[in-house]
From TrEMBL, chains A, C:
<feature type="domain" description="Dehydrogenase E1 component">
    <location>
        <begin position="18"/>
        <end position="305"/>
    </location>
</feature>
<dbReference type="InterPro" id="IPR001017">
    <property type="entry name" value="DH_E1"/>
</dbReference>
<keyword id="KW-0560">Oxidoreductase</keyword>
<dbReference type="InterPro" id="IPR050642">
    <property type="entry name" value="PDH_E1_Alpha_Subunit"/>
</dbReference>
<dbReference type="Pfam" id="PF00676">
    <property type="entry name" value="E1_dh"/>
</dbReference>
<protein>
    <submittedName>
        <fullName>Thiamine pyrophosphate-dependent dehydrogenase E1 component subunit alpha</fullName>
    </submittedName>
</protein>
<dbReference type="InterPro" id="IPR029061">
    <property type="entry name" value="THDP-binding"/>
</dbReference>
<keyword id="KW-0786">Thiamine pyrophosphate</keyword>
From TrEMBL, chains B, D:
<dbReference type="InterPro" id="IPR029061">
    <property type="entry name" value="THDP-binding"/>
</dbReference>
<feature type="domain" description="Transketolase-like pyrimidine-binding">
    <location>
        <begin position="12"/>
        <end position="187"/>
    </location>
</feature>
<keyword id="KW-0560">Oxidoreductase</keyword>
<protein>
    <submittedName>
        <fullName>Alpha-ketoacid dehydrogenase subunit beta</fullName>
        <ecNumber>1.2.4.-</ecNumber>
    </submittedName>
</protein>
<dbReference type="InterPro" id="IPR009014">
    <property type="entry name" value="Transketo_C/PFOR_II"/>
</dbReference>
<dbReference type="GO" id="GO:0016491">
    <property type="term" value="F:oxidoreductase activity"/>
</dbReference>
<dbReference type="Pfam" id="PF02779">
    <property type="entry name" value="Transket_pyr"/>
</dbReference>
<dbReference type="Pfam" id="PF02780">
    <property type="entry name" value="Transketolase_C"/>
</dbReference>
<keyword id="KW-0786">Thiamine pyrophosphate</keyword>
Length: 318, 334, 318, 334
């Protein structure tokens, strides 16, 4: 969908296809975690796939992506195959990290500019700004997109990155997935302002609030922000309002939560919204293919060998 | 303390022991309070602070945003103003997101200002490898705290020590980094009933007396060293296992006198080998007991690698009981 | 001047007295550095004494002070004597840090709630917020005032402290001495907004810009902010516009600077402005006393013994 | 390298050598660029980057705001995008204000992502005691960098090594922490004329051959060890001085073979003694050469205290030539 000239309809179809694929992936992973468990934690992104895919659909293939820890929508939308993603999750040699990831993943794909993830929240603020500084220096015309949660917005790295990126007019776009929770902390109790985007003026950059359940709207504002960045006008802070449907990690019983949305009733479900404009039979066809793709990839990942101990000594230094 | 419980001891978990220490000290001294992420409503990511919000209210059990520099730096400022903050970082690794606050502010404020202030802060640090938490959620970083003067460092290995050392830490006027091992949270053991079960810093525990080889181990490694000792006993090697319990201050005397009897020492730790605290213990023992040693001090340690995000692979990065046994056999044979 | 009921005139006289005393101290220190030098660096605060004294004059004796590294105005205004301040500067046993300070100082006075200073800029953002959290917990009614420079405003600790302090409504007041420079970096080149105070709305707190050369105006806005904090309404960010008259440290030749104000021509000199309302003879009397006080204290500090090596092992642990 | 200059060597300062390395590497490779506080118009607080802004322009020599997490974390991100950032922190101590970026991002990104990325970042760190800069501007923190796997660590002691190691660091695909000693900036020495004067990491330099006692020293301590050796020679103690030059990788072989000849080892460093890298070197040498040693390895180190803000007092916190002499005499007498 990044090639020039697809129609609006084509774009929406492709966004739908990716979102629904990730939805099936979410369900498949949950099933696995409930039955088998695996190491680390799985942070489900169900219900947030729409904004992830919508935003990433606005990126060019060469643009850089720093994703957040909630789900796989970002990476899949950026072109990564499901099998290496599942492989990471399951600690398989075929995972994109070659077996060093498992559960909570640090998947990456250098060729697709999926840049990986740190375990400490907020480190991608400064890293993303630095990647954008490299693009500015090289004049490669690339834009860096950084996803983060409402909780991560509290880290000081945000401030250091945002000030410098604004002053240098770095080509970076920050997308906050505000799902209202940071683990057990309600956003409303940890933010003095209504929106994360209210912090943008402090940095002299645009702050945009968008309905995160509306994938195409997220795509639109992201397109604008990316164009602005590519024109050399500097960063934008986008805040996509969404919901955390499940627990912080799969298995979290959320004793702290007074509004648990535990089932699969996803308010304002991005899958449904995207599906609305699509003819029933087309949609059913896409769904069937997506489900098959997920099943094939998950089975293949499951069948792949686990990494043996020798990998622990690989890749410490180049 | 031997495995057999004294009559007044209950058998409780390491987590529960920590939770009791917190509650008792907060009851004892109104100036004690806590802050950290998710410690209130949730009771902490590892459940260590459960029930404390209910008993002590939201002003003494405060949920912060995701802001480690505030959690630690704020604790420093709050300590200067007459309170005793006991703060939690969700993972010990996060001391790197508050390193200026820990290694500069906590460690040096008193010194830089000519002793005018005290800095009674406890930073609780869930540490070590368990369950595949990955390279930035599993490290054993206690050596760094040992290298920077001004901090005290506790590394409890049993429920009893977890409780007694934490109570000592809270009563200590100096900043304490309290490394609780995540892999021990569910381990149970005897803990004295008393409210005054305070384990002084700087006194090592002889976890198992022995005559042929001294093994110094901390945290999760104490049990593995003890298990190794049981395997070695039938092979004629009687291992003495010493748990220093605190690294700062370090009870080197107990270690040295043990080595003077056994003539051999092995240090076992989960932290990376290179420049880990095993090197310091080895260096000190060589300095003080060189001529009593029949062989060099050996170290069995974590690998010099980051930790992979996989529960099996990460175990391959830290010493197993088997490795300890194998090394002990080889060392005893020198 | 903190006791209830002094007249406006009395207050101004006292502020003048303190400002002019610090001015003489600045000149005396400069003379010493030029002739003898000393270890570390001396960051002159000449020209910024007005705002420092004005602001601190709004504090109660029990309020907590975290000062910044430029000059001695803050500490002197908070009640510290000159001799221990000079003693620190000169590495004397009689310094407030007992000989551990020298040059760039970490003076402190626990009894006067002068809380000291870290060597890393911006660490007082979080420490000050924490001190205020202690006051809130203890209900002691105290307010914490934190000074910082425009340069220090770039550190992420600002963000972490400001968000939390605002949400918790902590009794803390932040005062930025914006002197236009952070070492060789112009504020205008390192800030995306015109004012540091423009960042306040991001934290839902008042941001106030004030003429830092007008000591009494600074006093006024600080009084308001402190009252607000004491009422439990949370933090305020005050930005006092001032100038860095000299180099970053005494001896800095400022090769980077295109507007050097090297002499003692202090634009909008706070000493002159404060002196305007005061009768000549009264002013001359104050000046003479101030100069004598400075000379006595400096000579006494010079005559005091240096610390011997044994102090290095003191105060590492309690 | 001996003190005598080869014919093609010029005698230049340590600062100048660093400045040359930066300029040459930026000329050689367009991807190399720099950021840091005051490195442009001012040429750095210590003058190390003078002239570079003029030659390479503001896009390759960028002044940042006061934001160490951006300087290091940004460098990490910029390295992933095909550039080679060489960044300056104004004082080595400030690695604590960017610790997550250094010890997590730089050190582990490659590993965590299965080797898909390389991390060619150099962090220049003006280190050590000089002129009374105080507790948070004077520390020697290289041991911490040695303990955390994934980083490389250089500690140049001469102008020649400063230049050659920095060039090697910039060409290295791994993150390098480059500890430049502030007390050496003005020291002059012979430096080869060549643009290709690259000193490989992991090869120690025998600064003075000797037969009676090996002294391992780094940074500012190398000259003090050499001065001590001159004082000891007339007393019949012929000291071999070894400068490892890099701590990661560490050329332990050169040290061990020296000890096998001299049978005695002393490690001298400015970093605090406890859990400093001297302990690691001591531990390794004991492990590998225990039976060749006539005495335990000794350490002469910085005190276990913060550093006072006073040029005299701070000198009392680090080893002097006299202390080295005294310790060497005592060690030789064992
Ligand atoms: C620096 C840091 N502090 C704390 C954590 C632990 N942690 C992991 S996820 C999380 C909550 C994140 O909330 P948010 O950013 O809103 O993302 P969400 O989980 O809601 O998608 C926390 C506290 C961490 N990984 N890093
Ligand atoms: C974290 C940190 N980074 C850098 C420095 C070095 N440094 C000391 S003062 C200074 C400039 C400060 O500027 P500003 O905050 O505006 O205060 P001013 O000197 O203008 O009063 C710098 C960069 C430091 N001390 N701490
Ligand atoms: Mg969230
Ligand atoms: Mg300034």
């Amino acid at each position: 969908m990044n090639s020039p000239g697809p129609t609006a309809e084509q774009v929406q179809l492709e966004v739908y296809r990716k979102v629904v694929t990730i939805r099936f992936a979410e369900l498949r992973i949950r099933e696995h975690v409930e039955k088998e468990g695996f190491g680390g934690f799985w942070h489900p992104g169900i219900g947030q796939e729409g904004l992830q895919v919508g935003a990433v659909s606005a990126m060019q293939p060469d643009d850089y992506l720093y994703y957040a820890h909630r789900g796989l929508g970002y990476a899949f939308a950026k072109g990564m195959e499901l099998e290496p993603l599942f492989g990471d999750l399951l600690g398989r040699r075929t995972g994109s990290t070659g077996g060093k990831g498992g559960g909570t993943v640090h998947f990456a794909d250098a060729s697709r500019h999926v840049m990986g993830q740190g375990g400490t929240l907020g480190s991608s603020f400064v890293m993303g700004a630095g990647t954008a500084a490299a693009s500015q220096l090289l004049g490669d015309g690339r834009v860096t997109v950084v996803f983060f949660g409402d909780g991560a917005s509290g880290r000081g790295t945000w401030h250091e990155a945002a000030l410098q990126a604004s002053v240098w007019k770095l080509p970076v776009v920050w997308i906050c997935e505000n799902n209202g929770w940071a683990l057990s902390a309600r956003f409303t109790e940890q933010s003095p302002t209504e929106h994360v985007a209210d912090r943008a003026p402090a940095y002299g950059i645009p702050g945009v609030v968008v309905d995160g359940q509306d994938a195409m709207a997220v795509r639109e504002v992201t397109l604008e922000a990316i164009e602005r960045a590519r024109r050399g006008e500097g960063p934008t802070l986008i805040e996509a309002k969404t919901l955390r449907i499940r627990g912080h990690y799969e298995g979290d019983r959320q004793p702290y939560r007074d509004d648990p949305v535990l089932g699969d009733e996803i308010p304002n479900d991005p899958v449904h919204r995207l599906g609305e404009g699509i003819a029933d039979d087309v949609r059913r066809g896409i769904d069937a293919e997506a489900r098959a793709l997920v099943d094939r990839a998950f089975d293949a990942a499951l069948a792949a060998p686990r990494a043996d101990d020798s990998v622990i000594f690989e890749d410490v230094w180049a | 303390m031997s495995a057999a419980a004294a009559t007044t001891d209950r058998v409780i978990g390491y987590s529960r022991a920590i939770n009791e220490a917190l509650a008792e000290e907060m009851r004892r001294d109104e100036r004690v309070w806590m802050m950290g992420q998710d410690i209130g409503r949730l009771g902490g990511v590892f459940g260590l602070t459960r029930g404390l919000l209910d008993e002590f209210g939201p002003m003494r059990v405060r949920d912060t945003a995701i802001n480690e520099t505030f959690i630690v730096g704020g604790a420093a400022g709050a300590a200067l103003a007459g309170t005793i903050p006991v703060v939690e970082l969700q993972f010990a690794d996060f001391l790197f997101t508050a390193a200026d606050e820990i290694f500069h502010k906590l460690a040096k404020w008193r010194y830089m200002h000519g002793g005018q202030f005290t800095m009674p802060v406890v930073v609780r640090l869930p540490t070590g490898v368990v369950g595949g938490a990955g390279a930035e959620h599993s490290q054993s970083l206690e050596t760094i705290a040992m290298h920077v003067a001004g901090l005290k460092v506790a590394v409890p290995a049993t429920p009893s020590d977890a409780k007694g050392l934490l109570k000592a830490a809270i009563r200590d006027p100096d900043p304490v980094l309290f490394f609780e091992h995540k892999g021990l949270y569910r381990v149970k053991g005897p803990v004295p009933e008393s409210d005054e079960h305070v384990v002084p810093f700087g006194s090592a525990r002889i976890a198992r007396p022995g005559s042929d080889l001294t093994v110094v181990a901390t945290g999760l490694m104490v049990d593995r060293a003890l298990a190794a000792a049981e395997q070695l006993a039938p092979q004629g090697i009687d291992v003495e296992v010493i748990d220093p319990r605190t690294l700062v201050p370090l009870d080197i005397d107990t270690i040295v006198s043990s080595v003077e009897r056994t003539h051999r020492l092995m240090v076992v730790h989960e932290a990376s080998r290179t420049a880990g605290f095993g090197a310091e213990i080895a260096a000190q023992v060589h300095e003080r007991a060189f001529f009593a040693l029949d062989a060099p001090v050996w170290r069995v340690c974590g690998t010099d690698t980051p930790l992979p995000q996989d529960p099996d692979l990460e175990q391959a990065c830290i010493p197993s009981t088997d490795e300890i046994v194998t090394a002990a056999l080889a060392l005893a044979a020198i």
